Amino acid sequence: MTFANTFAQGSDAYAAARPLYPQDLLDWIASACRNHDAAWDCATGNGQAAVALARIFQRVEATDVSAAQVAEAFAAPNVRYSAQPAESTAFADRSFDLITVAQALHWFDYELFWPEVRRVARPGALFCAWGYAWFRGDPDVENKLLGPVAKLVEPYWAAQNRILWNSYRDADTLCPFDRLEAPELRIVVDWSVDRIIAYVRTWSAYKRAAADGLETQLEATLAEARRRLDPDTSHQLWVPLAIRAGYVE
């Protein structure tokens, strides 16, 4: 299963199930960015970041390798979506004041991506990538839902996921821009059991495991978790954001 196919499957469910990024992140990006004319949201997925950036920038170009994801993305009048790979776009040289990558930097071919960033960035443009890995918080949810599913799908995580799990620290040797210190931020959610289950089903490893014949076992595990957890109770979970930012000089 390719990267594009992994996230193309159930793209509408992905858009509905993923958490929102904190406003503090967008505020920090706005303050760190020197100009607010044009932004490129690369690997936009459901367009969540692109639509948020549209409130700050005059125009936003949002791309994704998956045409299905782009088709389901959130709309905004100053956001233009297109299906393009991160490493090779049709944008003109020196087009953008900001380049963002939300929850996707670990999937790229860095030898091709960084030259593309340099090509389309205006002098002094801000590059900012962020992502999140494992939600924590409610012990019941961890022990009865997240933990059992994570154990089943563990062999199906791609090697690239470990770059994210290491908070993009591996990218220090790959990203050519000096690190810009970013604030310590986290995503906090209050979700029902059904909402958590919907999120778990968007994991790339869950999709691979299901495609490899484990779907019945996975769904039985989720059903058991739903039986053991009160479906009418909200559960608070949180996850730190890994942020990698720098100016393209």
UniProtKB/TrEMBL annotation:
The keyword Ubl conjugation does not apply. CDD domains: AdoMet_MTases (cd02440). The keyword Ribosomal protein does not apply. Residues 41-128 form the Methyltransferase type domain. Keywords: Methyltransferase, Transferase. GO terms for biological process: methylation. It comes from the Bacteria. GO terms for molecular function: S-adenosylmethionine-dependent methyltransferase activity. Pfam families: Methyltransf_11. Belongs to the methyltransferase superfamily. PANTHER family: METHYLTRANSF_11 DOMAIN-CONTAINING PROTEIN, METHYLTRANSFERASE TYPE 11 DOMAIN-CONTAINING PROTEIN. This is SAM-dependent methyltransferase.
